[in-house]
Structures are given as C-alpha cells and as structure tokens.
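Appendix B. One record, verbatim.
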Amino acid sequence: MHPNRRRRARWVGLAATTVVAVSSGILAVAFSGSASAATIGAGSYTETLPAGAKLPTGCGSVSTNPRENVTANAPKGAVPTNDWWSSLLFKKGDECNFSQPLYGHPAAYKPVASGLGFSYEQTPAISGSPTGLGEYHYPYAQKVVAGVAGLNAPKAFVDNWTDWTVTPSWSDGARTLKATIGHGLPLTYFQATGGDALLSVTGPPTTWSNSGNRLGFSIAGQDYVAWAPAGATWSASGNTYRSTLAGKGYFTVAVLPTTTANSTADKVAIADAWNQYAHNHVTGTRVSYSYNQATGTVSTTYGFTTTAREGNGTGTVIALYPHQWRYLTGSTPAAQTYVSPRGRMKIVTGTQFQTSMKYTGVLPEIPAVADNSGADLTTITNYLNAELNNPADFRGDDTYWTGKGLGRAARIAEIADQLNLTAVRDKALSVIKTRITDWFTASAGKTSRVFYYDKNWGTLIGYPASYASDEDLNDHHFHYGYYVAAAATLAKFDPSWASSSQYGGMVDLLIRDANNYDRNDTRFPYLRDFDIYAGHDWASGHGAFGAGNNQESSSEGQNFSNALIQWGQATGNTTVRDAGIWLHTTQAAAINEYWFDVTGENFPSQWGHNYAAIVWGSGGAYATWFSGEHALVVGINMLPMTGGQLYLGDYPASVRNTYAELVRNNGGEPQQWRDMHWQFLALGDGDSALSKFRASGGNYTSEEGESKAHTFHWIRNLAALGTIDKTVTANHPLAKVFTKNGVRTYVASNITNSTLSVTFSDGRNLSVAPGKTATTGGLTWSGGNANGGGVVSPPPSPSPSPSSPSPSPSTPGCTTGPLLSQGRPATASSNEGVDYPASNAVDGNAATRWSSAFADPQWLQVDLGSTQALTRAELTWEAAFGRAYTIQTSTNGTTWTTAATVTAGDGGTDTLTLSGNARYVRMNGTARGTAYGYSLFEFKVYGACGTTTAPPTTTPPAGTAWAVNTAYTVGTVVTYNGARYQCRQAHTSITGWEPPNVLSLWLPL
C-alpha cells in the first residue's frame, strides 16, 4: 500500500533519484491529557495543544513565534504560509538566515547578506529520460546581486506582503535595504539607506548602455536594466556598478525579455518604453473576482497599486502566465515574451489586467443514465451492497486517511441515492456523520480525533496529523477537502446537521484554515494554500527547497475547490460557493496548462514528457514523493475521481495521450491504481475504459480511496454520456454537458426542495424536480432523493448596478421567456475590422464579439424576424464597455422608441427590463467606458413567458439542402431531413456536423 500524501524531503538535485521513498505505515500519534474546548455551534475545537502533538517547526523560535522573521511594518494577523516566497518567513532546514531561491517568474531571487540576488535562466536543466523518471528545472544561478555598498546583513526579514508580492528587508545597523519582488514583475523596486546602490555581477558584464540615470548590461545571455533617480548616474568598475542615487535612496532593476539574438537597438527600445514605469514602485497587489451565474463566466481582475517616486506616473510592467494570457480581455500583450518554467509569459503594462473564463459546472456525481436498469443495474447493485458494512473503509486515523475514507463513503452515498438503494445510502451517511461529528467534538479528556487552533500561526491542525500537516503545515487543502466534500453530501440529506447552530461552523473553520475566503477574518491568512497569481495551490507550508515550493496532487487541490462549491450550494452560502467556483475555474486552467500541458507549448521540448506529476517553482517532475511506479506517478493527479474532477476531461485528446504515454513508459497496461486510470481514460474514451474494466472481471485491487461500485458507475455512465462539452455553460453551478457522436446530453442536479429550471447557453432548458439529478438531450433520466434546503438558482441574470434599471421579477412558473435574438440578422454602425462583425454578438458563442470603431456614438441592432412581446435584454460586455447607452425598439426599423436607459454602466453583464412589442432592438451607445470602442460578447433579447420557441421570420428565406464541405455564413437557411435550420455561426461543414447534431451551429426554424 502506497501512501498518497508524503512528508517532503529537501530537494537536492536534478537526478531522478530524488524521488523519495517513505514507509507505507500510517503515522499515528498517541496523546494523553485533556484539551480545553472552544465551542462553535454544537461543535468544538481545542486551543490547548494536545500532549505530545507537534507544532510547526523551523529555525530559532519560529515554532512559537512565527513572526520572528517579520518586521514591525509587516501586516498584522495570521502570517501566510504555502506561498512561493514562504521560505523567507518560515525559515527551516539549512537556511535559517535568508531563504531558499524564490521563483517569482520571470526572474528568480535569493536574498544574501549583501542584498538580493537575481537569476533569469532561459535554458532548462533536464534529467532522466522521456520514458523514465525525470525532471526539468530552470534552476537559480545567480547573475547579479543588487544591494548597498558595504551591506553585510545577518538576516533577511519580511517587511511586507500583498496578494502576490513580498518585500524582503535587510539591515546591518548602518545600512538598510528593501526590495519589492513578485510574480509577474520584471521590475524590482529598491529602497536603500546608508550607502551607494551597488550591483555586483557574477563574471565580467557587457555594458550596452550607460547614459544619465539608466544603465543597461548583459551577463551570460541575460539582459538587465537599472534605473537610478533623476540626476544620478552609474559608474562601472570591474564586475560592479555603483550609484549614489543622488541621495534619494531608491532604484529599480529590471530583467529584459531578450535573448542573445536581440540587438542592442532592441534592448534600448524596450528600456526606452519602460522608462515611464521605472520609478512607479509597486506597493500593493490585489485580486478581485466575480461569478456571473447567468453566463457561467468567471471574471478576475489582477490589480497593482503603484506609488510614483518621481513624477506622477502610474502602472508597471506585468508578465502574464499562459493561464492568464489565454483568457485575457481588454489588453493586448507586447510582442516580446519571457521564458519561464510555466511556459511563455506575455507582457502588458498598466495598473491591472483582467481575465474571463467559462465555468462549465461540477456535479455531485455522474448521473446513472446507463446503470439504472438491466444487467448493469444488477452489477452496480451488487457492488453497492458489498459496501453496506464498510462504506468508508478507513485506512488510518489521521486527517488524511480519515478524509480519504469519508470521500469514499460520500461517493457510495451519492450513487446509492441515485439508484434508490436507501439502505446503502443511509449507512454511508451514518458513517460520515458519526466520524466527522467525532472529529468536530473536542470533549474533556479527548486525546485524538480533535482539531487544535494555534493563535500564533493562525491555523487549525487536526491530530493525529500526518505527512507533516502539523510541523510543516503541509497539505491542509488536501486533507480538509475530503471533510468538506463529505459534509456537503451529508448536508443534502441532513440539513440540520450542517446548520450553524450544529456543525456547519466547524466545516467553515476547516475551509478558512486551508483557503480563507474572507479578507476581513484575520484568524487565518487569506487563501493560505492558493497562489493567487500562479493559479494553483502549493503543498508545502515552508517551501524551503532549492527548487522552490511544490505541488504534487493537483487533483486533491481541486477536490477542495469542488468541496466549497458543493458545500456552499448545499447550505445557501453563495460567498463560499463562488469562492469555490473561482478557485476551481482558475485552477482547472492552470492544471491543464502546467501538469498536463494540453497545448504542448509549456514543457521544454527536450524533456519528452507530456505530463508532470510535480510542479516545482523552478520546473516540473515526472516523479512522485512516494513511488517510482509509473502508474502512481501519473495517477497522483487524478484522485479522487468525483463530479468535481470533470475538468480533467476538457481536452479528451490530451487524456488519451497521457494514458498512451503511461502505457508506453510502463511497458504495458498499468497494474496499480488501474481503477484510477480507467476512470481517467473514460474522460477521453469511455468505451475503451469500459472494455478494460469488463475485461478485468472486477479482479483488481482498488486504490485506497476507491470502491468498485464507484469505478463501475463512473466508467459505465461516461461511456454512455461521452466526453465533456466545455463550449456550453449553464445558469446553475451543478450542471454539465456531455457529447457523444455529436449529440449533447445535458445534466443538472437539484439538491433543493423546489423545482429548478436550468437554462444552458445554447438555449436548451431542463426542468429538474426537487432533490433529483436529471438529464435531457441524447439521454433522458432522473433520479435521486436529496431533501436539503440548498440554494435555489436565481433568475438567469444578476442584479444590475444601481445606475441600471432593475429586472422585472420572475413570473411564477416562468423563469424566463425564450431567447429571440440568437442567430438573427444583426447590423451595426461600424465594425472594428472583419474579425468583429455584428453577427458575433448574436451567435451564442461567448468567445466571439462585436467591436465598433473607437468613437461615439455607435449602435448595434438585431432583427427578430417578426414583432414580438419583449421582457428583457442582456448585454455581456467585453472590457470595452458602454458607459452610457439606451436600448431602443422599433416595429419597422425606422421609428425608434427608448425602452431602457443606462447612464453609469460599469461593464460586465447588464440586464435590462423591456416591455411592449417590437421586431427590431438596438443598443445605441452614446459614451464609451474606455478609449476603445463598444464591444459585446453577446446581445440577447428575450420574449414574453408562454412562448416556447423563437419566432419564425416574417418571410422565411428559401433553404437549400445541407451538405458536407460547404461554407455557411451566419443567417444561411438549409433543410435537413425535411426540417429547416438557420446558421448561427460561420463554419465549413464536415460529417458529424449535421444540423440536428450541432445546435451550437444551427438554429431549428
């Protein structure tokens, strides 16, 4: 038996032999004595350390004084851990004075006695082989140290931190230095006292520019620029550069996105362009996000606060990771890019940038569309009944193995409920309730199964701890995600247990410890385990490794994110739910980029692998902490398989490629964790996975958190449903769309006691009875008996800003009228080139947009085909939004009536109430919100309730027979099998794209 979570040993080199083997025994600690309890509802935790328990441990007195390495200027409240820079604060191991290398990207840094070291490596160091264990790293190799002449500090402290920056601080009594470094910051900003600024270069530098206050030099293929204050100069002597800073005490050093192929003129041009940002010191970074339930859109703003040391400029130079620039809105990156361990980083400038991603849903469990009858029902029933006496199959009593067992029981409960096997379901729920309640009760004299809150560290540790979740603050998101997910399942059937007066408060404490969603709660750090800018979790609390911090089981991190969605939905806490949706959506993009490299663009081409089991600050590894077996190396980023792991199937071809690489490297089909790999393969090829499962006859050993019941249910139903269709979203968080042979099946889970109407972005509607999971489309099924309260899905659009008209209240029995505008003829006052026509705003594709000329006024209008009763308009803006505009209606396209007015729009999605009858609807923009034009992803007009289909055109255009290899434009009408369809989106047809199969392309008439 191989432990899934392991103690982290120091990374010491690039060889594949750094894979760490650990004992397979369960870590257990025996306690004695009693613990004083702090109550929260009916639950409780202790604030007295249980006898024999370990606190976080490190250098000096950090165990009891985690602020030992911060200055008096540092933010108050709980100190952050599990970050890219944590070894600077949580000093541990052989570096008790400064820190291990800090991989900010694009540059890497290392505090030393004389200042801050820089490295920007562009060539990877690779070990191992393409078919064996191996690693790639862009290791720290110091090229420059920026400091103060004579500085010899005994230690580096932390003076400040914000969402993705940190400010190291040095002092030797006579001289001081502070430096602000961060993710995505090519410019590092320094403040110095007591001496000249000194740049010490490792080896002879090449000076390519030294004029006035600006210096440009190269070393070993890396190009740097340093700016002193106005009036200052740089002097060169051997391997050093020096500046008096004109007595002003600040300077800036930048790493350029250049290579040896760039000319001096190229370097000078970049330095010239960046002069305006040279002294705009970054003094804060902050993320903000929102989830638009109506459109399934997750919007994130990454903001930078800058303070001008000279002049009154704002903004800085920002380098974006692939998971950011692929979803960038409102900005255009520069031509130059940086090399990084995560792939190319693109450059924008300013005080913020924004991304827009689609949240395509999670499920409590895969629906029983295929194993609800016949021989397959017999098979799953037998598997479930076999679990009646031991649904959790706990393998240990620590937080990790307890969580694994709880997760196993939750899957069994969900499946048994779908199939009305209530005895199995209730037994699984009983086990979950009994065990979690035990952990959530710190009774007098209790020595184990207890949570302890440490006020110094601002952390909640469960004892018995395991895999250094105590002494290193490792893996809290891994462990606690299982607890929260199981509690969410329990809440669906026993809402009173989940209430704040019972045990809901304890669940919330676990959430806040691992990833506190509330900035105002200083008991825990904000988003402890989640690296906001990198887009994923870090597993080590201290990160004290030569390769930076690391994350192995990204899927267990996603298990935590999914748990927040399920818990928030089940308990009516939309703040928690939306935090989970943001975490899950962001991390899904990062995992597909950096663990599975679905684009093939991010890993070094020389490495040879298309998958990384561990992501390090400096690179990645095809290896694990606990085993060299290929099956476990690949499988560690798959478990646990739940309805929250469907993002793994967003790229079916990548799934098949990863499985094929596993088989190739393994020299044949995997023999360990076969169930995990079959379930993963099912996301790319369900029929093949089902064939492998059936061939096994069930004669295999399940992964420690799995059951044969869940494995069969997952594979059998995915074989029927097909692969994930990530092009369609829903206005309900617990919904998903699958496609097989060009036919979509729509799934939604209603965990409330009221009927739920779910609308999908392609126009499909699904009514789900109370407590049921239901499907429509290719497969139709309904099952389940959840009776919790939960969150009833609101009307399809969020409330508008105060300056906008409020939407009309929903009519009983009618969530919304039909969408009338999609696929209809659209025209505009202007288009920003051929790529942004008016038709893009009504094509049903949220990835395309109409964009106007950069001037006022501008308009966009749609012809509904006939006069219709109207109820509302929904406008989804790109970053270039309308500050002031009206919605106008007309019956003839000539005489217009103002139906709604917006005077202080702020972008995002605007929902406006309409009334009356019209054939033509127009957005008439009078004041832009940006320097760009007006840009709409979607302009939707809805009709009155009671109409079930979109209206036909007044004079139906003639249709020709649909044919393959034909180019169709928006609005084209065709016939197919006696039915008529209108083209929604321009495309060239192929076999499989027949109109009934692809409603995203064709609108039935």
